[in-house]
Structure formats: structure tokens, C-alpha cells
Write a structure and sequence with these properties.
This protein is an all-alpha fold and about 70 residues long. About 55% of the residues lie in helices and about 0% in strands.
Length: about 70
């Protein structure tokens, strides 16, 4: 199973490296690739659709990170 810590690491990583604030639900898709939950090398091209902007902002991100650290 994909744990929430992996997903939260991904949305922090996207914010730091790409300067893109994505919704936590979208980070699950990216985490499955970054954490090698499947063999991506067997595919020539991979398309990942992520969402951001509408359902996330800095305040919500802070709340998510706080919840993550409390658990």
C-alpha cells in the first residue's frame, strides 16, 4: 500500500523542485512512480495527470503537513 507519508513527501518535493503546489491526492500518482511501486522502465512513455490550484493552498498544505507530523 502507498502510505500517506510517501504522498506527502511527493507534494513537498514538487513544491521544492518544480515550484508547483499540487493537491495531495495527485501526489499519490507521482509517489507510485517515485517510490517504484511498479516497473516504469518497461514503458516507453508515461503520462501523469496532476491537479493543483483549485483544491490546495498554502494554509491547507500547512494543515496537511501538521496532520502528517501528528500521526
Amino acid at each position: 500500500p502507498l502510505y500517506s507519508s510517501a504522498a506527502s513527501d511527493v507534494y513537498k518535493r514538487q513544491l521544492d523542485t518544480q515550484r508547483i503546489l499540487i493537491e495531495p491526492a495527485s501526489s499519490v500518482t507521482l509517489a507510485s512512480i517515485y517510490e517504484h511501486y511498479f516497473d516504469a522502465k518497461q514503458y516507453r512513455n508515461i503520462v501523469v495527470i496532476i491537479c493543483g490550484g483549485v483544491g490546495i493552498n498554502r494554509e491547507l498544505l500547512t494543515q496537511y503537513l501538521q496532520l502528517q507530523s501528528d500521526s
